[in-house]
Amino acid sequence: MEKQLKSHGAWIGKWTFILAATGSAVGLGNIWGFPYKAGTNGGGAFVLIYLLCIIIIGVPIMISEIIIGRRAGNSPINAMKKTAIDSNSSHLWKLVGWSGITAGILILSFYSVIAGICLNYIFISATSSEILSSSEQFGAVIESPLNLIFWHTVFMLLTFLIVSAGVKNGIGRMVKILMPMLGFLLIFMVTYAMFNGAFVKALNFLFAPDFSNVTSETFLSAMGQAFFSLSLGMGSIMAYGAYMPKDQKVVPTSFTVASLDTLVAMLAGLAIFPIIFAFNLEPNSGPGLVFVSMLSAFNQMQFGQLIGPVFFVLLSIAALSSSISLLEPGVAYLSEEGYLSRKNSAFAISFFAWLLGLGTALSFNVLSDFNLTPDRNFLDSMDFIANQILLPLGGMMIAIFVGWFVKKDLIINEIGYVNPVIYNLWRFFIKFIAPTSVALIFISQVL
Ligand code: TRP
To answer: 43 partner at 20 to 30 Å CA-CA among 172, 218, 243, 311?
Structure first.
């Protein structure tokens, strides 16, 4: 007989899923990652390729994750298993769920360290330093293991508290507070940049494509970014889908979440680049763009000690609404199996991720010369294993599973009526385009 799994409850109304999934999607990937990647990959051309990836790979996989999750109402491991068994396929498809949960823990471990730096910057940007330049300030932040570990602990604790409070009272309630705040702060930042920065120059940079510098690397980077930004390939969206009301439409909802995520990435670019250009800073400075270049701008601008903290609060909120979705799939699994209560599951997994995060925190300083995998320090190794191996692999397997293995009537049952043109396009993308493109990124990154 099949074992009875514990239920997690469901979200009330259709907005909770949209807010939670958008909260998961919108994170450091949008506000920290997207602008610097667009900046180093030549601006508009990268943005265009990124949009293409969202439409032909991102949205189809998001639809698939929601179908699997909502149908089962369980954590990704059990959702994959149930759907596979109901389609007369091997229960080993649950391994995709396992790989996702592993990826989630690895990502959470370093995500929390970077998000901790964002928390730290709320205070750093509030006081201007006359003695240190912004790059020296960043250096001072990452040089101190204790400082990094302190903020990493604070961030992980916040993530733990929200997830342990449950689906309805923790995650559901928090996203209703955090997401409107995020929207408000972002609009404030863009408006500020519009009136006080080099807005036209930023528009040109982001939206006038220059294809002269596009290489295969640009495609890979845009595709990887699309995956990460939409939270795909590890089960965040699948787990959230499990709590989505049955009468909510999967396809339009996926479009809404993907559009909001993309909108936020663009708006983040429009909040950051006008300021960067106004202070004659370089748009292609890489990962230090928000911590070094933006801090330098805040140090120089009038009211910078007020605007700076607003910006870093925005970044921290975005990170928190994402980190909870990295923790949830594993917690859902442990608690639905009845191994541990939700609180203890959340504690066990976040503690483990916190421990792993120590390696990342130390990779900025005392362990900077230590390579966990060849030529990659601890942080880069975690990032590599999760983002460049487990996520693309997970995404590809989900696409293959839904495209080729899941019974058609299960799918139709879950998505309800959709325009036949859209449905057939989705089938085509999920069967052929998504798996081959992801296989391409995957192969070329591993080689
Ligand atoms: N999408 C988030 C961001 O842009 C990060 C994130 C949350 C994520 N859950 C995920 C990335 C699952 C990959 C997979 O910052």
So the answer is: 311
Q: Which of 287-301, 340-354, 378-392, 432-446 bottoms out in mean pLDDT, i.e. has the lowest? A: 432-446
CB 107 within 8 A of CB 234: yes
Question: CA nearest 48: which of 202, 268, 256, 219?
Answer: 219
**Residue 7 region by backbone torsions, left for phi larger than 0, else alpha for psi between -120 and 50, else beta:** beta
Task: Count CA within 13 A, CB hemisphere, residue 206.
Answer: 23
CB-based contacts of 411, cutoff 8 Å, min separation 6: 67, 402
pTM for this prediction = 0.94
Helices (H) and strands (E) in the chain, counts: 22, 2
Six-digit token string for 223: 């595709």
Q: Which of 322, 327, 388, 438 to mutate to test the pocket of ligand 1 (most atoms within 8 A of CB)?
A: 322
Domains of the chain: 6-446 (1.20.1740)
pLDDT in tens, 398-418: 999 999 999 999 999 999 988
Determine the pLDDT at residue 4.
82
Q: Is the CB of residue 28 below 6 angstroms from any atom belonging to ligand 1? A: yes
- 82/154 Cα distance (integer angstroms): 37
- Dist. CA 319–CA 16, nearest whole Å: 18
Q: Which backbone phi and psi does 9 adopt, to 5 degrees? A: 85, 175
Ligand 1 atom 10 nearest Cα? 231
Q: Residue 114 in contact with residue 441, Cβ under 8 Å?
A: no
Question: CA geometry: angle at 177 spanning 310 and 295, to 5°?
Answer: 15
CB atoms within 10 A of CB 316: 24
Distance 25 CA to ligand 1 centre (A): 6
DSSP label at 31?
Answer: I
SS3 category, 381: helix
- Residue 208: pLDDT over 80: yes
pLDDT at 346 over 90: yes
